[in-house]
User: What shape does this take?
Amino acid sequence: MGAMFSLEHAQALDAADPLRHFRQRFMCDEPELIYLDGNSLGRLPLASIKLARDLVEQQWGARLIRSWNEGWFDLPIRIGGKLATLLGAHADEVAIADSTSVNLFKLAVAALRRQRGRTRILTDDLNFPSDLYVLQGAIEMLGGEHRLEIAPSADGVHGPVEALQARLDDDVALIVLSHTVFKSGYVYDMAALTAAAHAAGALVLWDLSHSVGSVPVALNASGADLAIGCTYKYVNGGPGAPAFLFVRRDLQAALHNPISGWMGQHDPFAFGLEYVAEPGMRHFLTGTPPVLSLALIEPGVDLLAEAGMAALRAKSVQQTEYFVALWEALLAPVGYTLKSPRQAAQRGSHISLGHVEGWRINQALIHDLKVLPDFRAPDNIRLGMAPLYTSFVDLYQAAIRLRRAVDEGIYARYSRQRTAVT
Amino acid sequence: MGAMFSLEHAQALDAADPLRHFRQRFMCDEPELIYLDGNSLGRLPLASIKLARDLVEQQWGARLIRSWNEGWFDLPIRIGGKLATLLGAHADEVAIADSTSVNLFKLAVAALRRQRGRTRILTDDLNFPSDLYVLQGAIEMLGGEHRLEIAPSADGVHGPVEALQARLDDDVALIVLSHTVFKSGYVYDMAALTAAAHAAGALVLWDLSHSVGSVPVALNASGADLAIGCTYKYVNGGPGAPAFLFVRRDLQAALHNPISGWMGQHDPFAFGLEYVAEPGMRHFLTGTPPVLSLALIEPGVDLLAEAGMAALRAKSVQQTEYFVALWEALLAPVGYTLKSPRQAAQRGSHISLGHVEGWRINQALIHDLKVLPDFRAPDNIRLGMAPLYTSFVDLYQAAIRLRRAVDEGIYARYSRQRTAVT
Assistant: This one.
């Protein structure tokens, strides 16, 4: 193989990487481990270790209830405002609350009620299944008058853009899509689809879970209406950290949070018996947030802001391009297929490879070969490039080990039986 | 004043307290502080310090995504099962998820859909306002066909039991009440009201936030249908820790979670596009839980189980009785009124005192007198007795300082302007 596919070449790429120093800001205490699952659970920022101790031992343990007035109450809006800068949104358009699924429920129900008279919801079969489940539940709860239409991707990789646009008419209430889709990593053109939807009078709700922190998102410049997303992937906010929601300024007063709780109440400590929505993003909050998990989002957001989305995207593109080249040279010959877009402009920050023995190869990677990818049924091995800490040597070694898993038949040691969380 | 109202007497009560050693299991590093707000945010168990470090540094930082299969995925059901033992419920009837408000929304909507044809929801004006907000939002979202009836308490202290029972008929779908009410601490007779509701074909949904961990709850023995509650008060689960929900076994298949997400999906890692509810409590889960805040509930639950609810209740009753006696002797003469039931059997584990200068006295307590109660508009000073760590000396000193706040005019230094979180 040529010089491009050598350890030395990978090391040279790392040496030239302007973001290489960010890796030292994360806990990486298992040097032989190649972690390519930052698109599922981001690594632990070192700053979060210190913050977690402070949160538990000082803010909770020592300051007790006083901490609510010493910063906790403002966390959802304050951290949301910081995150907005990574999303091309105004600070007063983003808040942190609940889970991605609960936020989707809130905004989808609010949008459907706003769009009364329109009965169709468009999505695609590349969307994260949980988003479809939430929409199915919302439709049932609203009386079954809406219909969810799932446009199929022609190749399982690229979004069915034309099919979605062809379905747009004045009966479409809402389009709900993953901006970067979870299997293939395909990225929708947010501005183009939003414009098409608006021309038909439809609203668009974007799930940014696989975009935020790795793919540039320009919510305001795209004219976006609504968005949700998680903070535990490329944002490195910690396991199950609360999610975010974005509502464009002029929609904030027009939409009503169906799960109206005290955190969205105007003057909640008056303890009035009637719900009166606080203007702005606060009214999309509901109950008391899980403070420890919430506050720990901030170090991850700060690291992304420090690196800058342009630099992060540049490295991400360079890394996915590099890995596609490695795939072509080393992995395609032993049965791996590329299940992500070839065009970098259409691709987020992970690469999916297919293989008929995908599940067993994945087990071999985890248990024998010290590579942590993840697996998405039926046969996708997902490899996430987190530009803050993934190195080119990581990617080179991962390709070598993926090759060995097949060449040396290591996968054959494993059962086809799956574990609870893949 | 007599011997009963002396420091020595309080010390003797502490010396005889069989639970006194539990205080050492909590962080208490400000010896002069009298913390009587465990009914709002419980203290930090020392075991949680160690667990928090392990969760962040080992489980997240070192084990990364692997931790999902090493315990995280099962946390909502496993900790819920432990909590069930404190609630007189079967382990498979309780799960941890979301916030109290979101859980109320889920179960109230599910119950209203189950009770189709019945249009009225009963509650009282002692209920936590956020619960009313959630019900108001749910009614609006379901098309405005239901009516929320708020039965007024005659004295602002005791629950309007007879008024609620008188309103029961075959149009009542659901009763939603706080088992222990947040201001006065009044405790409803769960079995009696449940029986009356069932006789009329209504379901009852109890908010146990101010009961769990301090007031014995016998969900199964009371024939209870549904319950929700928080874990950050007497359970000492940490700020905003996720809430719980209880669904009686035979109702689990009959009720449908309106916010259907991947955590409630049967075989979620098959990534099917249709929601198929997992049987049992799991289907009442929705999205990815905030793992750090969730896992930290467990040490608090373990401490309560170790102490035992009978012993906790015995101490709680002794402490509220003692404080009522202190009030009568020391505080009533300077304008404090008792806004909690006189009968211990009708009272939870906090005492509310009213005073025309309640807000300013509360400020004086916090800033000058090193007492942390909380304040509930318009004039309630709430004093929580957390039997795991509140001492009789705490209560004696608090009474002395409440008296001083008035006698010495200390409250007059403060403005009537309220802060964000009271």
Summary: Chain A touches chain B through 95 residues (CB under 8 Å). Residues 309-331 of chain A form the longest helix (23 residues). The CA atoms of residues 42 and 227 of chain A lie 21 Å apart. The domain at 3-45+308-413 of chain A is CATH 3.90.1150.10 (Aspartate Aminotransferase, domain 1).
